[in-house]
Amino acid sequence: xxxxxxxxxxxxxxxxxxxxxxxYALCIIAGVMLAVxxxxxxxxxxxxRPGDVTEVATWMVPFGIVGGRLYHVLTTPQPYFGAQxxxxxxxxxxxxxxxxWGAITLGGIGAWIGCxxxxxxxxxxxxxxxxxxxxxxxxxxxxxxxxxxxxxxxTDLPWGLQIDPEHRPDGLEDQxxxxxxxxxxxIWDVGVAALVVWADRRFKLGHGRAFxxxxxxxxVGRSWIEALRVDPANRLLGLRLNDWTSLVVFLGAVAxxxxxxxxxxxxxxxxxxxxxxxxxxxxxxxxxxxxxxxxxEITA
Length: 300
Fold this sequence. Notes:
Layout lengths: L12 E4 L2 E4 H24 L5 H24 L2 H4 L18 H19 L3 H26 L13 E2 L14 E2 L2 H23 L5 H18 L8 E2 L2 E2 H23 L3 E3 L18 E3 L10
Antiparallel strand pairs: 1-2, 3-4, 5-6, 7-8
Helix pairs in contact: 1-2, 1-5, 2-4, 5-6, 5-7, 6-7, 7-8
């Protein structure tokens, strides 16, 4: 018998006249705003032009949403294109289903386009944005809480999450409380953001290494959180596809970090971009290597 538990919200939608306000969308929007705000502070502290992050976000965010949805649909096609699937539901992003690696991949392409238009280098921009992305993920996970989705195995722990009968998985209809994996990941994401900020200050990470650290640290947490989940997922050799993706991405991030640290030590100097003349001898948007003792420190 469970003596304590976390209740699930009674609704995830509120109506403002004829317009629905969905908690999932509000959480995504709040996360994006937090990431842009923190990224702007860190980018300006690195030497970037104020407004760069907001401008690039107009490319990055739409690309990221499309990429996140594509990843989810491609890795879990049955609800949309299976025997009982509804293809139109692939467009219903308010019902949940944004894969982080699709969002990072296409969002990165959008960021590259935005950075090119502003005349600024992508690697230090990604470094500035990295902890904000982790915090955005933490906020976004509360959208899953309101949707009563992506929870873990049944548990009698005091922090077990109450799931309404209509949202329980097949075969577990009599189980009332489950691991709140949305909360586990939110806490982990906050820890990842703190780690990146600390390491960036302590070691003056540059050339995309702060972003690589965020990616590697996030995937470590995602691996054990995935092991707790009971929602349907496609598997390969006994592991969920997200586990394989996390493994590949982790190895890539660690390899990039190591090779970059060896080939391009220190932190690059960021110029003000295409809308403000760069320093003498440097092309617009190019970064130059500097000694780590003289670089501008990035604040939280």
